[in-house]
Amino acid sequence: MSFSCTKCTRLSLFLSDIKKQNPDYFCQPVPPFGDQNAQLLIVGLAPGMHGANKTGRPFTGDYAGLLLYQTLFDFKYSNRPQSLGVNDSLELYNARITNAVKCLPPQNKPLPEEIKQCNQYLKDEIDALPSLQVILALGKIAHDAVLAAFNVKKSLYPFKHGSVYSLNHRYTLISSYHCSRYNTQTNRLTADMFKAIFTQIQSITTPSL
Ligand code: URA
Fold this sequence. Notes:
Strand order of the largest sheet: 1-3-2-4-6-5
Strand content: 5-15%
CATH class: Alpha Beta
CATH superfamily: Uracil-DNA glycosylase-like domain
Number of strands: 6
Oligomer: single chain
Low-confidence stretches: none
Radius of gyration: 16 Å
Distance between the termini: 28 Å
Bound molecules: uracil
Number of helices: 7
Mean pLDDT: 96
Number of domains: 1
CATH architecture: 3-Layer(aba) Sandwich
């Protein structure tokens, strides 16, 4: 993906503004992270202000990354249980993480046209993963972005926590509530529920540690 994408004017202006207030923050489109040969692609929503937008790595420094990276470690998709920063030597095995929207959106809410504009990057990322089998969508926005990348009708594949759909007879789309602070602190998504999603994923993919 292009690191200099400025196609969404609102997001581009917002990032420039945040960069002025926080000169040491990344404040650019956050690229995907992980194994280029991954069987599993995890799709989040968008970088968080003081997390991925600061560090330049998806879910790194974000509260939502705590459960995600711990679970990836527990299921042997990584060498460390935490993602601290781009120089922490964290490696993902058989997994890759990206976001439906690559730039930090105001109030964590990308506009429909921004999600649409960014969708080509997600589509290109999916096409560039030769071993991809399972896509885990975190939340409805990510779920719908994956459906858009496959150009299929949303109404045929409604988002539900734990929903499993076959796409193009080749990929499996599994969806979960987003592992956001709100969802985990209100127990909408518990660690056990997230674990169950990964158990399901592991029945399809083969971790390689
Ligand atoms: N950080 C990300 O990179 N993505 C999310 O969806 C949430 C936090």
